[in-house]
Specification:
The protein is built from 11 helices and 9 strands. The chain is α/β, with parallel strands linked by helices. It folds into 2 domains: 170 residues, NAD(P)-binding Rossmann-like Domain (Rossmann fold), CATH 3.40.50; 78 residues, 6-phosphogluconate dehydrogenase C-terminal fold, CATH 1.10.3660.10. The longest helix is centred in the C-terminal third of the chain and has 26 residues. It is elongated, with a radius of gyration of 21 Å.
């Protein structure tokens, strides 16, 4: 897709990186950014992530042929309500939300029939936040999941697919329901567990933490309000995943018995082998 006017609502890490990546890909679009902090918009302009800023999301989407929602998912409903009447006929709206069922449902309910919505989840980012951390190469080699439904316009779907591929991503499609279930296990559950690992520590133990602990809990450094919205929005899948994880921990407790030494070693080796296989697959994706 070659939009002539690209509107980015929420110019933080992801929104700013979209702007920078679009320019690096030579997409000939005028990039308009909106954010509720003037200081953030100033940084986005200075970094070249956007070409102009708008004082409201309604003004930001006026005349845009592609709009990307980059705010936390908890703000999507209000933002969709605000922009619905200002979108041009034929405009395409997509997003970067980490949950998809509620987002797609809201968009299909609130946007006019003349506007097309395609749910997207670019699997790229960082525990850091803010446009100052935006990078033109953030999406290179990463995966973007598109979540069409029976109501999704096929032409709009292809255009959004093309847009993410131009930014360097590998695209994949699945239903919003399948997305939320599968992404819960590999993204939402790990974040919850990382936060729990930090929360359970005593003040006497934390000073002894070294690189391994910091690596394991890195993602717990994410924004609390943003992750609150994600975890609550996907609570049914997360509760199921936590129960399954608790079952795995119960298995580990059993393997710590003295007569389970060989079984414990095998369990640990299997986990290491599975991770090594996953790492090799990811490296092949990044370096095809």
């Amino acid at each position: 897709m070659q939009p002539s006017r690209l509107s980015i609502l929420g110019v933080g890490l992801l929104g700013g990186s979209i702007g920078l990546a679009a320019k690096a890909a030579a997409i000939p679009a005028r990039i308009v950014g909106y954010g509720h902090r003037p200081a953030t918009l100033k940084k986005a302009l200075e970094s070249g992530a956007i070409d102009e800023s708008a004082s409201s999301c309604k003004k930001a989407v006026a005349g845009a042929d592609l709009v990307v929602l980059c705010t936390p998912v908890g703000l999507f409903e209000e933002m969709l309500r605000q922009i619905a009447g200002d979108l041009a006929a034929g405009a395409i709206v997509t997003d970067v939300g980490s949950t998809k069922r509620s987002v797609v449902e809201l968009a299909e309910k609130l946007l006019p029939s003349s506007v097309h919505f395609v749910g997207s989840h670019p699997m790229a980012g960082s525990e850091k936040r803010g446009v100052e951390y935006a990078r033109a190469d953030l999406f290179q080699g990463a995966r973007c999941i598109l979540t069409p439904t029976d109501k999704t316009d096929s032409v709009a779907l292809e255009k959004v697919d093309e847009f993410w591929r131009k930014l360097g991503m590998h695209t994949q499609r699945m239903s919003p329901q399948e997305h939320d279930r599968r992404i819960c296990d590999v993204s939402h559950l790990p974040h919850a567990i990382a936060a729990a690992l930090i929360a359970m520590q005593g003040d006497d133990a934390l000073p002894l933490a070294s690189k391994g602990f910091l690596d394991t809990t890195r993602i717990a450094g994410g924004d609390g309000a943003l992750w609150r919205d994600i975890l609550q929005d996907n609570r049914d899948n997360l509760i199921d995943a936590l129960r399954r994880f608790r079952g795995t921990l119960d298995e580990l407790v059993h393997l710590l018995e003295p007569d389970q030494r060989e079984a414990l070693a095998k369990w640990l080796d299997q986990a290491a082998e599975r991770r090594a296989k996953l790492l090799a697959e990811k490296l092949r994706e990044l370096n095809p």
